[in-house]
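Entry type: protein chain
Record version: 2
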Amino acid sequence: IEQVRKMGADGVGLFRTEFLFMNRDTLPSEDEQFEAYKQVAKALAGKPVTIRTLDIGADKTAGALGTSGTHRQAPNPALGLRAIRYCLAEPQLFLAQLRAILRASHHGKVQILVPMLAHAGEIEQTLAMIEQARQQLRERRCKFDEHVAVGGMIEIPAAALALGPFVKHLRFLSIGTNDLIQYTLAIDRTDEAVAHLYDPLHPAVLRLLSQVIQTAHKAEIPVAVCGELAGDPQLTRLLLGLGLRQFSMHPAQLLEVKQQVVMADTEQLVAKVARILRCDDPARIREMVERL
């Protein structure tokens, strides 16, 4: 948090909650989670903190979750029971986390970010559970912000291509580029045999990014990008040209990216990136991006 303050960030764009579940044999209690979230919310002194609900599975595992009924060794973890799918399958675990996040909202500007949403049904289930957590806190007379914003991560192509329910029911979007690229290109970025094919400048990836950003703008809801793309200063001008205005990255990357933003002529970039979006040749796209 101190690093965030020093770098002049506008807040915390993605607070990962998995660390509370790692390297332990028992699940963290609601109170333990609340104390962790409250500490961050208070430390930011009014700046927003976007808390992502539990994103377990695939490349992220947690020992304590081995005690839950749905835990198993998935044959293909990246396509299995992970993130919001896992949370909806473990409602008591999910409700405890939601109550902890909501309680922390009394101590700062907290937002809830839900990972790996794919369709309207998951959005409706998630919002219903958040309302259930709210009602439980009301019955306990716990203080919380009744108007906490709930947003969704766009990291599955299905979500990027069918954004209607997202912009209708959610208050903000965050594009998770690492997974979105991986799922779009059917590439496991951790597999050395195919990692060289993982290309953030693939025309399909750029068009998906553009579609999400423009749809969010039309719906007048905020949209951010997180993942390696957001923190790469060589791609900052490209993202600005796509219409992006909110970046979420590691604090160590802030200064370089900020410098690119300050020096950029966004009107010119929008026109140049429009030409890039019409190009189908990856090598040509790379040349055009380097000249931005």
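Comment: The domain at 1-64+77-291 is CATH 3.20.20.60 (TIM Barrel).
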